[in-house]
Design a protein that fits this description.
single chain, alpha+beta, Dna Ligase, domain 1, four-stranded mixed beta sheet, 16 helices, 14 strands, DNA-binding
Length: about 450
DNA sequence: TGGGGTTAT
DNA sequence: ATAACCC
């Protein structure tokens, strides 16, 4: 028996989910400490997207309309959070800090990170065993108040994981001044679900025996990360309302309704099974900037908005140091029914001669890019007919490293250790180089 | 309902 | 290029 226990737990991962408390509001309170003890909301257009706990005590909820929020709480202080730059910068500092502990850090949005600490736990377990130490103390809460069995190495590993999670949170607080929650479990799904059980600034570890309790505690299937609104609607059609329904539902029927891949994935999720790896995010895959508005109905307005978006984006891309090879324009057209759906986009490769100019200071890359984006715009909208836009978005993607012959600031947080020897084929080469770029 | 992101098809 | 998912 003990052999099967150790064999099972040896294959068991330890994953931490770190979830910052009301992240935008925290960043704003750091930027302006006077806001510390006041009820604070972060506003984007007519929405309070998040708020601090002072505001929550007074009944403010995330994504509440500004109108409702002010009615509920006239003393509410609002700061505009439409420019994400401060949040994005702080967000990467958090990811970078976690990356100092361990290389496997995956971002989820700006305020969440998964960290696969399996190796770190193994190292500490061996240290403990060598030093003959037989007791370990859990940090934070244990889900369900489940008793810890120190003879079960799965328990011991997760307890060590809880200590590491505590260190993560302490480091984030000491170095960045941010508080947050953490969940420790054997996979991403479970770590994420358990991190929310005690809410501001606390942490929780899930032991395997409580997995089913955690899953069944979810009142609705949409609470399972990975099951979104579309899938939920299809499932409701099938009479599947909660996690137990999904667990018990015939696989074959589910596969016919949702396709094999989705069906198998979400049914495993319903049991708390998730073998998806923690995939290091690294630098961003895309840079985008968008703005929404009541109405934009002329080509001139469109051009002005695009210029604004572009100038912000070019700054960001310059700091990053890589070169984008694709641009995309996205629009949302007014429609009285469903407001925030129905986006369309067109994209195209960036001409090589323009790509060259991205890193440079003085070159005017903006006018030709505006021209390209206006062409994309005309692929979607017949400008001779009336139109009514409510959103414009520009996105640069397909980012490639500069050829190593070119120097420049590395914008991302990893100051890459250069590989042992400088021989050629380590980094990914840029294949798509225009004339004159060859090394 | 904002202003971002990712992966799969 | 879109559709789904995440925050």
């Amino acid at each position: 028996h003990s052999k099967s226990v150790s064999a099972r737990s040896a294959a068991c991962r330890a994953v931490v989910h770190v979830d910052l408390d009301c992240f935008y509001a925290q960043v704003e309170m750091i930027r302006n400490p006077e806001l510390r003890d006041k009820p604070l909301g972060v506003q984007q257009k007519n929405i309070v997207v998040t708020c601090n706990y002072e505001a929550r005590k007074l009944g403010i909820k995330k994504l509440m309309s500004v109108k409702d929020a002010k009615e509920k709480c006239p003393q509410l202080v609002l700061v505009n959070g439409e420019d994400l730059t401060p949040y994005r910068e702080m967000s990467y500092k958090v990811t970078e800090l976690l990356g100092e502990f361990c290389p496997l850090v995956e971002r989820l949005g700006f305020d969440e990170n998964f960290v696969d600490i399996t190796e770190l736990v193994e190292k500490r377990l061996k240290q403990l065993q060598q030093s003959g130490c037989s007791t370990v103390c859990v940090s934070g809460h244990v889900y369900n108040h489940q008793a810890i069995n120190l003879h079960d190495t799965a328990h011991v590993r997760l307890v060590i994981g809880s200590q590491i999670a505590e260190e993560f949170r302490e480091a984030i607080h000491a170095r960045l001044g941010l508080t947050g929650c953490a969940g420790v479990a054997s996979n991403k799904l479970l770590s994420k679900l358990v991190s929310g059980t005690f809410k501001p600034n606390q942490q929780t570890v899930l032991l395997p025996e409580s997995c089913q309790d955690l899953m069944r505690s979810l009142d609705h299937i949409q609470r399972v990360p990975g099951i979104g609104s579309k899938t939920t609607k299809r499932l409701e059609t099938l009479g599947v309302r909660n996690v137990c329904d999904l667990q018990a539902f015939p696989s074959a029927v589910l596969e016919k309704e949702l396709g094999v891949a989705v069906a198998q994935r979400i049914q495993k999720l319903s049991y708390g099974e998730d073998d998806s790896p923690v995939t290091p995010s690294g630098p961003p895959q895309s840079f985008s900037d968008e703005d929404s508005f009541k109405k934009c109905s002329s080509e001139v307005e469109v051009k002005e908005k695009i210029e604004e978006l572009l100038s912000n984006l070019l700054d960001r891309i310059h700091k990053d140091g890589r070169q984008p090879h694709t641009v995309r324009l996205t629009i949302r057209q007014f429609s009285s029914t469903d407001k925030w759906f129905h986006r369309e986009s067109r994209q195209c490769p960036i001409p090589p001669h323009l790509i060259q100019k991205f890193g440079k200071e003085s070159s005017n890359v903006i006018s030709p890019l505006v021209a390209i984006l206006m062409k994309l715009f005309r692929k979607m909208i017949d400008v001779d007919l009336p139109f009514h836009l409510t959103l414009l978005s520009v996105c640069f993607s397909n980012l490639k490293d500069l050829p190593s012959s070119k120097k420049g600031s590395i914008g991302f947080y990893l100051k890459q250790m250069s590989p042992p020897s400088g021989s050629g084929k380590r980094g990914r080469e840029v294949e798509d180089v225009s004339p004159g770029e060859g090394s």
